[in-house]
Amino acid sequence: MRRHVNLRQIEAFAAVMQNGTIARAGEMLNISQPAMSKLIANLEFDSGLILFDRVKKRLVPTEHALRLRDEVERIFAGVHQVESAITALHREGQGRLVIGVMPALSGNFVQRVTSAFLRSNENVICSVQAMNSQWVVERLVARKIDVGLINGRLDNPHVLVTTLLEHPLVCIMPKDHPLSYKTHVEPDDLNQLPFVAFEPHIFVRHLVEEMFEKHRITPSIVVSASAVLTVCEFVAAGHGVSLVHPLMVSGLENHLVARPFEPSIPFKFQLCRSADSKNTRLVDAFAAETQIIANDLSRALLTVMV
């Protein structure tokens, strides 16, 4: 008498399809070869399908077996998704912090801050999501992230802002560049000089272009990029100089030389959070680590520039 197909039979079928033989499938499920053979035989009987042809003591999947395998794989994929969801729920019970960060700080800087934060908050899971500053603020208001690192342009009554580090832009250049022997760089030094620029939609680009226009400087832009890491890499490779905020150079201090630029071009990064955050303890701890790392990196870079 036929019975309903059970999960153990399906597991046995999947193991045989994956391993090719009854013996290896039995080892995978930690059951004997006779028990595995019985499970497959019962599956064929209960389903009314011939799933394997017996050819010289080998099991050769039939067309029915191949089609059934596709369905079984979908079932097991769903089970894995459920297991992942359960794991995520357990982790959320331990604490979770979602961090939105603008691309300019999404590399070495946010890695250093998050690593320092996790050393003091071992049971917390962090999710770091890179996006432009406007999206960081929008997702913060929508409660999709807990804390954000953005540029200095923000005006939203639902968001609390703390200045992370306000510092003038510095001129970065390859090591042994002629400008590296100067104590500071001036606009005239950049006239007709190969320059690595940010793309027009990047806020730093607007600040730099205003300075160029004011001082009637015409740099020779050789390449432009939207990512600060790309700008820094092109500078380090000798394609030109650029103007960036000190925190943007985090992690590349050994590949570049930085010099103060005068007259100064102020620029600041900000840490933002929801005005009514429900994750206050973790956000406070992350904000404290962020300020410490920002100050340390600033002092280190300024020491190198002296």
UniProtKB/TrEMBL annotation:
Entry superkingdom: Bacteria
Q: Molecular function terms in GO for this entry?
A: DNA-binding transcription factor activity; sequence-specific DNA binding
Instruction: State the protein's name.
Output: LysR family transcriptional regulator
* Domain (HTH lysR-type) ranges: 5-62
Q: Name one GO biological process term.
A: positive regulation of gene expression
Looking up Gene3D superfamilies in the UniProt record yields: 3.40.190.290, Winged helix-like DNA-binding domain superfamily/Winged helix DNA-binding domain
Supply the source organism for this entry: Sphingomonas crocodyli
Q: Which InterPro entries match?
A: LysR_HTH_N, LysR_subst-bd, WH-like_DNA-bd_sf, WH_DNA-bd_sf
The alphabetical list of record keywords is: DNA-binding, Transcription, Transcription regulation
| A Pfam family hit | HTH_1
PROSITE patterns linked = HTH_LYSR (PS50931)
Its family? Belongs to the LysR transcriptional regulatory family.
